[in-house]
Amino acid sequence: MATAVVVDTHPLDGVIRAERMPHIWCPGCGIGIGMRCYAQAILESGYPLDQHVVVSGIGCSGRVAGYMNIDSYHTTHGRAIPFAIGLKLANPKLIVTVFSGDGDLAAIGGNHLIHAARRNVDITVICTNNFNYGMTGGQAGPTTPFGAFTTTSPYGNPELPFNFANLLAAAGANFVSRWTTMHVRQTRDDILYAFNKPGFCFIEVLAPCPIGFGKSNQIPDGLQEMELYRERCLLADGIPMDELGIDLREDQPIYVGRFLDRDPPPYKPVNVEPSQ
Ligand code: SF4
């Protein structure tokens, strides 16, 4: 008679703090998929775990810092990027990654984001963009699409959202891509690529937030939002940067892909003698 094999380990156990599972995220939330891509990229990077550092801000995505089995910093709201820059400048050998959400990075931390891109600091930023402030009740934020419903835009959002690709390309980043939680291989591959790419790298991951955003926008479970991505995502091929903004209204394509990949030298501190 065959003996049942009990598997009590997971290939990512060494990279994720398994003792902290189960995580706090809602059923259908996409943040865990983004974290899984990051963990897989770390595993495949060939760098020892103690060379990787993750910095998170505040919000549901901020929990990632607590779940990764590497040196991690769960920082104050909007300030993940300056913490990360400090780490990188203090020890350039570290592979420093910021993992945070759209509200933390683009609103409260918006100035840090554009100035880190302007300086072309050699860090990687993974942004799970779920179009709202999920943790605090589903309010509109700077990436909420035009016309979308949230708890603070009950008649439809009257503002246009940030187009990260256009914004960060203009600011000075070296690498910008966008995928969704349906594109796990591409997301993992771009994170891996960014680990070895000098300069400021930004990877946007569109992720379902069925509790905060989906329930108000007729995508009340995570799977439905994944289906929406499957139907509407198109690989951007020659699409101008200023046309890469996200519009969730019917029949509008959602462009994904590597939008920017260039090689100006990254920020390097130099000692400048003060003038007399
Ligand atoms: S509120 Fe939204 S982003 Fe936060 S854990 Fe729930 S589904 Fe995820």
Model description:
This protein has helices spanning 31-45, 64-67, 80-90, 102-108, 110-119, 164-171, 184-195, 222-232, and strands at 52-56, 71-74, 95-101, 124-129, 175-180, 201-206, 233-235, 254-261. The protein is globular and about 55 Å long. The chain has one domain (25-261): Thiamin diphosphate (ThDP)-binding fold, Pyr/PP domains (Rossmann fold). The chain has 276 residues and is of the alpha/beta class. Strand 1 (52-56), helix 2 (64-67) and strand 2 (71-74) form a beta-alpha-beta unit. Strands 2-1-3-4-6-5-8-7 form an 8-stranded mixed β-sheet, sandwiched between helices. The protein binds iron/sulfur cluster (SF4). Iron/sulfur cluster binds at residues 25-26, 29, 31, 60, 130, 134-135, 209-212.
What is the 3D shape? Answer: globular
C-alpha Rg (nearest Å) = 19 Å
How many strands in all?
Answer: 8
In round numbers, the mean pLDDT is 95
Supply the helix-strand structural class. Answer: alpha/beta
CATH architecture: 3-Layer(aba) Sandwich
CATH class category name: Alpha Beta
What's the name of the CATH homologous superfamily? Thiamin diphosphate (ThDP)-binding fold, Pyr/PP domains
The total of helices stands at 8
**Helix-strand sequence:** HEHEHEHHEHEHEHEE
Overall domain count: 1
Strand order of the largest sheet: 2-1-3-4-6-5-8-7
Strand content range: 15-25%
**Ligands in the structure?**
iron/sulfur cluster
* Helical residues, percent: 25-40%
CATH topology label = Rossmann fold
